[in-house]
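FORM 12-B: Structure-to-Sequence Request
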């Protein structure tokens, strides 16, 4: 046992928030509490929890998780759950490092030796996808994901969807699989059309075909298309996930480990999803700590499908997935897979000196926004 002696957080480029926990014996663990576009809110939540949690037993991960959830009264949501994720991941890392084992050994052990991954192409206003997909293929990827469209009006001309089809065809012509992310940008009149139009070209999945607050619309859409429907990055707990599983309208669940309260909750969500024959493909356009934490859980769950990897994603300006690692070679992609790490804790070594250096004066990342031709705000 060892009490929490210190909790620190570091805002680092391009848009990440790392958390470091140290116990009284000097054992250390790292977590990631990134919530894109809301860094200051997470920092405020962490400030409050640091005051309350210093002195608690670092080994009692579940007790700290429940303390964060049940004593908040106003619980859940992206801010609380992302702040909690930073603490939870760091506590798992600390405990596993102290015991000299990978985190997956504390979660029941591994069921696979390598992890299937995909990366992004195309950007927020997608273009040049064939060239970018070819570059990913050269890096070792066999699957990619791209945005389906630019911003689209509530009811727009059907011709705005034509480029989506051509982009999917271009990537498929390289022999690669491609997930198509609607990104919640399309509303029902357009999403219905695009889902049907993409069917002949067999996307790996269509992601967030509608915003998650429209569960009735997603359920109706799921009955109109045979494309696998993926969603979940804007669901923040097992209670948020539950109605989607019960409605039978999701095929691939994409919880984000940095938004659902960390390793503890992702493992529980995966177990729930397995009972509904739903695959898990964790959302992770984030940093190396979040990616490593996902891999630790992915290694242990039977219904894992594929893992998002932010290497080279268009948001990574000023830093990339491997920038803060001392041993980046461990994530070499071969035939669409990365090998499961065997080192203790999260399985990689963070460059703390670089973290501290680049956190000085780091600006909080701000979400992009789209405006339509009439001056109206559109979904990003």
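FORM 12-B RESPONSE
SEQUENCE OUT:
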């Amino acid at each position: 046992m060892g009490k929490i002696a210190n909790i620190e957080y570091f805002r680092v480029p391009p848009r990440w928030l790392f958390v470091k926990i140290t116990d009284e014996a000097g054992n250390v663990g790292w977590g990631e509490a990134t919530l894109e576009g809301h860094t200051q809110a997470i920092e405020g939540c962490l400030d409050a929890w640091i005051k309350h949690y210093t002195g608690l037993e670092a080994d009692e991960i579940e007790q700290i998780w429940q303390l964060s959830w049940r004593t908040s009264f106003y619980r859940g949501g992206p801010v609380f759950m992302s702040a909690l994720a930073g603490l939870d991941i760091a506590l798992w890392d600390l405990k596993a490092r102290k015991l000299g084992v990978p985190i997956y050994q504390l979660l029941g052990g591994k069921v696979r030796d390598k992890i299937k991954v995909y990366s992004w192409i195309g950007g927020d206003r997608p273009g040049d996808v064939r060239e970018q997909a070819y570059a990913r293929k050269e890096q070792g990827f066999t699957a990619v994901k791209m945005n389906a469209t630019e911003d689209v009006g509530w009811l727009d001309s059907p011709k705005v969807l034509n480029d989506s089809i051509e982009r999917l065809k271009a990537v498929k012509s390289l022999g690669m699989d491609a997930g198509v992310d609607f990104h919640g940008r399309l509303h029902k009149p357009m999403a219905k059309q695009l889902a049907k139009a993409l069917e002949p070209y067999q996307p790996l999945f269509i992601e967030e075909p509608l915003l998650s607050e429209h569960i009735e619309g997603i359920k109706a859409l799921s009955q109109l298309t045979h494309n696998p429907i993926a969603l979940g990055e804007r669901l923040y707990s097992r209670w948020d996930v539950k109605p989607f599983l019960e409605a039978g309208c999701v095929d691939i669940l994409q919880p984000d480990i940095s938004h659902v309260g960390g390793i503890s909750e992702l493992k529980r969500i995966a177990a729930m999803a397995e009972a509904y024959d739903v695959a898990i493909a964790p959302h992770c356009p984030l940093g190396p700590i979040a990616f490593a934490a996902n891999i630790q859980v992915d290694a242990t769950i039977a219904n894992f499908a594929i893992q998002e990897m932010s290497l080279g994603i268009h948001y990574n300006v000023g830093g990339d997935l491997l920038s803060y690692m001392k041993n980046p070679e461990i994530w070499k992609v071969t035939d669409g897979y990365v090998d499961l790490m065997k080192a203790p804790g999260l399985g990689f070594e963070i460059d703390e000196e670089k973290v501290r250096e680049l956190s000085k004066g780091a600006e909080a990342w701000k979400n992009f926004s789209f405006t339509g031709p009439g001056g109206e705000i559109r979904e990003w």
